[in-house]
Amino acid sequence: QRVAMLVGNMSLSEKIGQLNNGAPGIARLGLIEYDYWSEAAHGVAWAGKATVFPASIGMAAAFDPDLLYHAGAVIAREARAKHNDYVQRTGASGTFFGLDFFAPNINIFRDPRWGRGQETYGEDPFLSATLARAMITGMQWSVENTSFVGVVATAKHFAAYNLESNYADGGTDGQYRLRFDANVSRADFIQTYLPAFKAAIVQGGAKSVMCSYNAVNGYPMCGSPLLQAVLRADPRFDG
Q1: What is the pTM of this model?
Q2: Which residues contact 98 (CB under 8 A, 6 or more apart)?
Q3: Residue 32: strand, helix, or coil
């Protein structure tokens, strides 16, 4: 009801302004300046001193969902402390000091040339799904609290994203991911690339999902029919 009231009282330009990660404050509605871009793959050290856990691929090597759950819960506590301190000092919520985090990275890692494999839980869809659920429930305090969320976890990047540049093929494009079109069969999409996201949403209750930089089968993922036909329909993501 509060969200509906706030949005209903925004002008068109104010609504457009809220679509950026750096959303301006709206004083008349009591909204402070807020940046949705915060990182927490294995801790919140982008916001200063914090507990730094092993890289995601290292934590995955423990094959221990409880470990990731507790790491996620610690991340949320430290993130809230940093957020509260920053807001009290500045009256705003700046980059890396928000309560929405672009983590965990649950893409499937099958080629070491990618360069971001250390952010993931590895090559196995079942393990990635299991650990995604654990980290997300930890970050969002889904077990400890039912009245409010610790921090918002963002499952990323939906979907079939594991290419950054074309350097490995002798190219010079460091942002080739923005132009790459992944050709993925229906079977491979369902069996390999979807399970972690389904677990993140259905079992983990992820409040946010980030679309991937690349295209899949001809459609840029951030405008793909798969967002509605798959993500919204089954596993019924409502974030």
Answers
A1: 0.94
A2: 34, 35, 36, 37, 38, 83
A3: coil
